[in-house]
Amino acid sequence: MTEPVLSVRDLHVEFASRRGTLRAIDGVSFDIAKGEVLGVVGESGAGKSVTGLSVIGLIDPPGRIAGGEIHLAGLRIDNLPPEEMRRIRGKRIGMIFQDPLTSLNPLYRVGDQIVETIRTHLNLSETAARRRAIDLLAEVGIPAPEKRIDGYPHEFSGGMRQRVVIALAICAEPELIIADEPTTALDVSVQAQIISLIKRLGRDHGTAVMLVTHDMGVIAETSDRVAVMYAGRIAEIGPVQDVVKNPLHPYAKGLMGAIPTLAGEDKRLVQIPGSMPRLSAIPRGCSFNPRCAFAFDRCRVERPEPLPRGAQSVACHLYDNLPAESAA
Amino acid sequence: MLAFTLRRAVQAIGVMFAVGIIAFSMFRFAGDPVNQIVSIDTSAAERAIVRKSLGLDDPVPVQFVRYFADAAQFKFGVSYQFRQPVSALLSERMPATLELAICATVFAMVFGILMGVYSALKRDTVLAKLFQAISLIGISLPTFLIGILLIYLFAVTLGWLPSFGRGEVVKLGWWTTGLLTLSGLKALIMPSITLGLFQMTLIMRLVRAEMLEVLRTDYIRFARARGLTTRAIHFGHALKNTLIPVITVAGLQFGSVIAFSIITETVFQWPGMGLLFVQAVQNVDIPIMAAYLLMVSLIFVTINLVVDILYTVVDPRLRSTVGRAA
Fold this sequence. Notes:
- The complex is a heterodimer.
- Chain A contains twelve helices and twelve strands.
- Chain A is α/β, with parallel strands linked by helices.
- In chain A, the strands form two sheets. An eight-stranded mixed beta sheet of chain A has the order 6-7-8-3-9-10-12-11, sandwiched between helices.
- In chain A, strand 4 (63-72) and strand 5 (75-76) form a beta hairpin.
- In chain B, 77% of the residues lie in helices and 2% in strands.
- A two-stranded antiparallel ribbon of chain B has the order 1-2.
- Chain B is globular.
């Protein structure tokens, strides 16, 4: 296997607050290979977005990366000086945010914003950059791009704006795209288009994609692998079919059980009791133990470390020294 | 766009008409103007002649139409105290006031925006905190006190700057300017600061607050994620979005600067419209007061109109909604 595009090792992110330091990310590790789509799923506040922001170096004070390493194609990027990190942002890592309605500066034409980004990263003339911008708009599926390029953001619909945002994210051919809930703010019908667009772009350009979402359907449709996050840690990570069909971690099981299916209409959806702990009150041991139906004594004192389990990796004591049937 | 401008212009004319009624009614309610003109021992017959010559015996609507028609041509009658046409008096004084107001506004805008941007971007530096402290002083001290303090310091104690007047002025056609002579420039400094200080602090606080607000928006975060330079983000993306409310406030404040330069002009004995107005009030010189009222409201209305149009230039969103509505 070649070197992964993105490699995150034991990442810790902390936020200093009045009530002490909050651990938003607590020892997260994962890789994304070239052309691979990694879905990151979890409840709000699980640390999905913060993971994405730390990769691109946009964790603002009072937050900081407190430990671990982030490598982009072998280059360590978590401790680069701000100016060097800026050069990587947009050029080697593109980012797509949740809300396309507010991601674009309302006072500038979309073309100007694309040209500005292109010229920041690539040594192109104004006209060449503009030609490239038109090509990009065509590639992300905006009709009549040579006309639309002079439009202002408010003249585009939500889905079209997200396409512009995607064009902006890929305008310098990045190796990695971080998409932070790219479809949450969109219509369901538009969601599918955007998802297939991201998928196609990843395939065509061999771009690695980190897709942050809380929508399991989106993950199942798009991702090659999926990481399930809970309270700042990865509960389970593995190939998408395995995790969806045969989740190991009790939390992942709960998540998959909460997806409605067309077949079993009369069945009640499984609900995970309770809610995710606040960052200031993460329980000792496994952070999921108060909500877990299988929790035993060890879960309340010792934090589980990720254990390889076939192609999957799961952080749960149930799989430590125990045969698989006890978890089934 | 044209329809929008026209609609606003019609509204502006409506406002001016209303102000005209108020200005006209000043003549009716502030005593008999004839008494102001003639002396105590003038006979009733002579009073009647004066009254007739001024058209004061005509029915009120006739007088109003006549006043309005004259005002539309910038004829505001004759000043009681100076025995000169009011329009001549005003146009003679106007350059002084406008020059002072423009200098004060430029001073307020330049320093206000610079200090505001700085204190937003470098929030925790000593200098930013100093700016905040200065702005507090500027907002809380009354204008006349600042003027008097400046005079005491720079004119009386240090003797660097003149304490009153405009200095030497140069005539450019009907306009007189103090910008071309050294003494004129020196004379402008203190009144401009006095008049503009409040505006400056207002703009500074506004720019700071708006800038902090804008820096938190998604499009700024996205601009950073695109790897734009800090410079481009701060001064290209953030500042332009900050300037929309600043234009409104600065524009509307320009009207107040002109209207309320009365105090500054009095403190510095600045030979502008404000000083003329104060003298007119003391002498119940109603034609001047009425004309001043009309002039100031004309300036206000014009500025409002210009600000509305400027908005659409800066903000494309307004342009299209305006276009759609039209």
